[in-house]
Amino acid sequence: MADNYEQGWIYCLSNDSYEGQLKIGITMKEPDVRAKQLYTTGVPTAFTVEFAKKVMFPAEKEKTIHKLLAQYTERVNPRREFFYVSVDEVRTFFELMDGEWWNKEEVEEDESEESDEEVKDDSSIKRKSECQNTGKKGRGRDMKKYFRDGLAIRHIIGVTKIWEGVYNEEQDSILSGGEIYNSPSNFAKNHYISERPNRPNSNANGWKECECKIDGKWVKAYNLPTLK
């Protein structure tokens, strides 16, 4: 890709067929369009957009991130954009860049975002209160189908900013820090509002970003099977 593009997307993609590897690259198209392009006959499973950011001079920023990652992690192939690195570590680098976070609304029910109507005020405290007390469940998954009572849940921003909570079956909500959150996306969204009030878009897909503790291990909420 030519280096003279002034604005474009820098993205982080994962693929279940490449365990532990992430692809960090750039595109002038929407990140999900690029992910679909990469799903060719030689690739067993589709790519997932973990996150992406629209930045100025994306090619320059891509080279910088690749150099940084190559210094302390393993690059699969020097001519390819795959690295053995965690999503949180890559997100930390992305957070250092100015730009607009990609937050495409999912069409499918189990990948849908929470309603934008929950956030209406510029005050982080007031927005937090509105989000927590709307009582709306949004269009996402039904927690009762996936969470057992007392299930530990956490959301991480970067590497060190962690919110932990517990699912309460009676209230069908996530309890954390004395507050009640009516969905994983609401939980993650309020974490962003608290930690990064000036973030361009505080929406979050909590089912993909939150983790649940199962048998002593943290796993993505999105990967949980339905309860029997």
Characterization of the model:
The protein has 228 residues and is an alpha+beta fold. The protein has two domains: 7-101; 117-223, no CATH class. Helices cover 25% and strands 27% of the residues. The protein has helices spanning 31-38, 58-72, 87-95, 124-133, 184-195, 206-209, and strands spanning 7-15, 21-27, 47-56, 74-75, 82-84, 100-101, 152-157, 161-168, 173-176, 179-181, 211-214, 217-220. Strand 7 and strand 8 (161-168) form a beta hairpin. The relative contact order is 0.12. Residues 106-139 have low confidence and may be disordered.
Q: Unreliable segments (pLDDT under 50, ≥5 consecutive)?
A: 106-139
Number of helices: 6
- Structural class category: alpha+beta
- Mean pLDDT across every amino acid position: 80
Number of domains: 2
* Strand ordering within the main sheet: 4-5-2-1-3-6
How far apart, in Å, are the first and last alpha carbons? 49 Å
Using the CA coordinates, give the radius of gyration: 18 Å
Major sheet description: 6 strands, antiparallel
List the helices and strands and how they pair.
Elements: E1 7-15, E2 21-27, H1 31-38, E3 47-56, H2 58-72, E4 74-75, E5 82-84, H3 87-95, E6 100-101, H4 124-133, E7 152-157, E8 161-168, E9 173-176, E10 179-181, H5 184-195, H6 206-209, E11 211-214, E12 217-220
Antiparallel strand pairs: 1-2, 1-3, 2-5, 3-6, 4-5, 7-8, 7-11, 8-9, 9-10, 11-12
